[in-house]
């Protein structure tokens, strides 16, 4: 007997908008194993496959992120850079900073507290 369960709503909400040639991605909620990490990865992959490779990811409304979420962000950073782009992080809270630091990924990402500065950073440094 086959039992079908309804799809659970993701605990991560993802919004996006273009600012020039930079996509600002706003995350809200929880970025967890097999949920938010996969949703984020699919969304970024869609844009990279369309040729959009410059991202500012705003983590200001993320209430929790685990190591799988950070790992997915690192994987998508590699994907964007392979296409000549980059991912810049915005509004990391102290827990996220510790987690990125523990995983030795703070050196891989540029981080910002101001969206306009993060977007403009692509003019000076389009990619790493």
List the helices and strands and how they pair.
Blueprint: E1 12-19, E2 22-31, H1 36-49, E3 54-65, H2 67-82, E4 86-90, H3 94-102, E5 110-112, H4 115-124
Helix pairs in contact: 1-2
Give an account of the 3D structure.
- There is one protein chain.
- The chain has about 130 residues and is an alpha/beta fold.
- It contains 4 helices and 5 strands, in the order E-E-H-E-H-E-H-E-H.
- It has a 5-stranded mixed sheet, sandwiched between helices.
- Strand 3, helix 2 (about 65-80) and strand 4 (about 85-90) form a beta-alpha-beta unit.
- Helix 1 (about 35-50) packs parallel to helix 2 (about 65-80).
Unreliable spans: none
Overall body shape? globular
Task: Examine the coordinates and then state which fold CATH places here, giving the name of the CATH topology.
Answer: Transcription Regulator spoIIAA
Q: Report the β-strand fraction as a percent range.
A: 25-35%
Write the CATH architecture name.
2-Layer Sandwich
* Average pLDDT: 89
Number of DSSP-assigned strands: 5
CATH C-level name: Alpha Beta
First-to-last CA distance: 53 Å
Q: Strand order, main sheet: write it out.
A: 1-2-3-4-5
Oligomer: single chain
Helix content: 25-40%
Radius of gyration, rounded? 15 Å
CATH homologous superfamily assignment: STAS domain
Q: What structural category arises from helix and sheet content?
A: alpha/beta
| Structure annotation, total helices | 4
Written as H for each helix and E for each strand, in order along the chain, the element string is: EEHEHEHEH
Tally of structural domains: 1
């Amino acid at each position: 007997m086959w039992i079908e369960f309804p799809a659970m709503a993701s605990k991560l909400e993802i919004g996006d908008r273009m600012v020039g040639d930079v996509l600002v991605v706003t995350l809200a909620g929880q970025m967890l194993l097999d949920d938010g990490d996969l949703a984020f990865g699919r969304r970024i992959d869609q844009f990279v496959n369309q040729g959009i490779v410059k991202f500012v990811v705003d983590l200001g409304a993320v209430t929790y992120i685990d190591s799988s979420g950070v790992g997915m962000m690192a994987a998508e950073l590699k994907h964007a850079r392979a296409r000549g782009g980059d991912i810049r992080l915005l509004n990391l809270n102290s827990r996220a900073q510790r987690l990125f630091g523990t995983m030795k990924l703070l050196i891989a990402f540029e981080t910002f507290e101001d969206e306009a500065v993060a977007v403009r950073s692509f003019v000076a440094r389009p990619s790493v």
